[in-house]
Amino acid sequence: MTKVFFLLSVLLSPYFLLADGHIFVYHRFDDTRYPTTNISTKELRKEFNYLKKHGYKVVPLIDIIKKVNANEEVPSNWVAFSIDDGFKSFYTHGLKVFKEYNYPFTLFIAVKYTEKNYKDYVSWKQLKEISKYGTVEFHSYGHGHFGQMSNQKIKADMDKGLALMKQHLNYEPTLFVYPYGEYDERVSSIIEPYGFKAVFNQNIGAVQGVCSDANDIDRSAVVGSNAHDFKLYLKFQELCGVTFQQPTTYPKNKIVKTVEVTLEDKSIKSADIFISNNGWTKVKVHNGKILWHANKKVKLNRIKIGVKVKSKIKLMVLSK
């Protein structure tokens, strides 16, 4: 099934000032069996000390979402923390560090693993203890690949997980994270009627507030031993009022034939278009319209097509 993902890219110069708030996501703590999703508590303390030293304010995740829903700018020194899946290592190792620094957090649980008492996941009793220090929100029931599931199976998964959270925690979640961060227009349309205050992906980016879509909020994963600067030197900028007309699905024969973009600002005369494996190309803009016959071949199964205007970037990511 073709999946279409949207995310905001970054300008990679370390000389840019920080802009926009940031949401970071963790999974496992002090669990060296899974290095790609693990962080040591030693490194976690380094990260937290970095934030204190450089004047960042760690806020509850919902505070950022309130700014987004009010169409207000998110302060550039705001940071929020989220933890996905509900691994027991957060309870046994990570939680004490968050308590030590008095930092708020939001834990998104895949309900099935708690309900069926999987050994690597938190129990309902432990979740009640965790909820004294942070918030517990929803990450689906079975953590399946929604893009490969039928509408009926997605809805059944959502309904079952939400009912169990209500039963065990006496709480109806207001925030949701897509399993694996995967979504497309069909999946989004199924989730929308649940009325969450915000829905999150796992695409690197930041939250500007005014331009941000509450149903598609970027978060950046932090893992490994050299993550303590969070890449906060990067300037994340949202390019508002940009619409891609083509392509909307992964290109046939791996050839991007035409890229059409509409800009709100009709005074712009030129822009740059990016295509994976092909770099940036300067193109002309006529009355806010870009029509570029690219005919560029791509090699990857997940490609990026982006537009850059006045040092701001927006990307469309297409996956097989």
Give an overview of the whole structure.
- With 320 residues, this protein is α/β, with parallel strands linked by helices.
- The chain folds into 2 domains: 14-236, TIM Barrel (Alpha-Beta Barrel); 242-319, Immunoglobulin-like.
- Helix content is 23%, strand content 30%.
- It has 7 helices and 20 strands.
- It has helices spanning 41-53, 61-69, 88-101, 111-115, 124-130, 151-169, 185-191; strands at residues 3-7, 10-11, 22-26, 28-29, 38-39, 57-58, 78-85, 106-109, 135-138, 175-177, 198-200, 220-221, 235-236, 242-246, 255-263, 270-275, 279-284, 289-297, 302-309, 312-319.
- The strands form 6 sheets. Strands 3, 6, 7, 8, 9 and 12 form a 6-stranded parallel sheet that branches. Strands 1-20-19-16-17 form a 5-stranded antiparallel sheet, with no helix packed on it.
- It starts with a strand and ends with a strand.
